[in-house]
Amino acid sequence: MTPPRVLTVAGSDSGGGAGIQADLKTMLALGVHGMSVLTAVTAQNSLGVQGVWELPAEAVRAQYRSVVDDIGVQAVKTGMLGSAELVETVAELIADTDAPAVVDPVGVSKHGDALLADSALDAVRTRLLPAATVATPNLDEVRQLTGVQVESEDDLRRAADAVLAYGPRWVLVKGGHLAGDAVDLLTDGTAAGEHWLRAPRHDNRHTHGTGCTLASAIASGLARGRTVPTAVAAAKEYVTGAIASGFALGAGIGPVDHGWRFRA
């Protein structure tokens, strides 16, 4: 039988820890068929990003149409888009696709390297987020997009409301940068749709690719027919295990372990 199909639209991480590479590994681990639209090539390793080369919008659009028009998709996940032109192109494509879309509004890399131009922020707010079934910003991305500074769990609901104001159906605000347990807030803006997800914090410093992995895991769950809360809860469990099993590569921050379940 043909497995569910998930399309990732993101940049390449030559070190294999994040981006397209992390997405496809996650999809394989979770039993779906992963496909890809490459938006940019990066020279990247455990120490950071040494170079970025963006693909033209025409190439991104051609990749997307090639996959969707022939193979079809049950879910789409977006990651690094880089420029306003690419954000607008991808937003138009996913809005015209009859499948749930998980938008990871990637702003900076794990090492602090900028992966989204300041000139693209307005396009993310007005074009990309309204097309999202689930948006998955971390606290830095919330601040970048909305100006809301999250300093405690009490601020997470205010941050979620600020992101929801731009139009996604659900938002998952990732509170991993806060002290204490790793707590995330998933909400659609209603009392019934509010879900708090907690997991013990691991001391492992090798967490490169966490955001890409989580968004891809959510998209994989949606492609399998799960509801948003169920897909997010399963994705949280998967990424928590991947963080706990993260391993050293090179001289810097290593990746989470996408194959941890195979070695458990």
Give a topology summary.
Layout: E1 5-13, H1 19-29, E2 33-45, E3 48-54, H2 57-70, E4 75-78, H3 84-95, E5 101-103, H4 121-128, E6 134-135, H5 139-146, H6 156-164, E7 170-174, E8 182-187, E9 195-199, H7 210-223, H8 228-244, H9 260-263
Parallel strand pairs: 1-2, 1-4, 4-5, 5-6, 6-7
Antiparallel strand pairs: 2-3, 7-8, 8-9
Helix pairs in contact: 1-7, 2-3, 3-4, 5-6, 7-8
The largest pleated sheet is described as:
9 strands, mixed
pLDDT averaged residue by residue: 94
Q: In the residues, how many domains can be counted?
A: 1
Radius of gyration: 17 Å
The CATH architecture term is 3-Layer(aba) Sandwich
In which range does the helix fraction lie? 25-40%
The CATH C-level name is Alpha Beta
Briefly note the structural class of the backbone.
Answer: alpha/beta
How many DSSP-defined strands?
9
Physical arrangement of strands within the biggest beta sheet:
3-2-1-4-5-6-7-8-9
List keywords for this structure.
9 strands; alpha/beta; EC 2.7.1.49; 264 residues; UDP-N-acetylmuramoyl-L-alanine:D-glutamate ligase; hydroxymethylpyrimidine kinase activity; 20% strand
Task: Give a written overview of the molecule.
By secondary structure, the chain is of the alpha/beta class. It has one domain (5-255): UDP-N-acetylmuramoyl-L-alanine:D-glutamate ligase, CATH 3.40.1190. The chain is 37% helix and 20% strand. The chain contains nine helices and nine strands. The chain has helices at 19-29, 57-70, 84-95, 121-128, 139-146, 156-164, 210-223, 228-244, 260-263, and strands at residues 5-13, 33-45, 48-54, 75-78, 101-103, 134-135, 170-174, 182-187, 195-199. Strands 3-2-1-4-5-6-7-8-9 form a nine-stranded mixed β-sheet, sandwiched between helices. Strand 7 (170-174) and strand 8 form a beta hairpin. Helix 2 runs parallel beside helix 3 (84-95), helix 3 runs parallel beside helix 4 and helix 7 (210-223) runs antiparallel to helix 8. The two termini are 27 Å apart. The model has no long low-confidence stretch (mean pLDDT 94). Catalyzes the phosphorylation of hydroxymethylpyrimidine phosphate (HMP-P) to HMP-PP, and of HMP to HMP-P. One of its GO terms (molecular function) is ATP binding. This is Hydroxymethylpyrimidine/phosphomethylpyrimidine kinase. It catalyses: 4-amino-2-methyl-5-(phosphooxymethyl)pyrimidine + ATP = 4-amino-2-methyl-5-(diphosphooxymethyl)pyrimidine + ADP; 4-amino-5-hydroxymethyl-2-methylpyrimidine + ATP = 4-amino-2-methyl-5-(phosphooxymethyl)pyrimidine + ADP + H(+). InterPro entries: HMP/HMP-P_kinase_dom (IPR004399), PM/HMP-P_kinase-1 (IPR013749), Ribokinase-like (IPR029056).
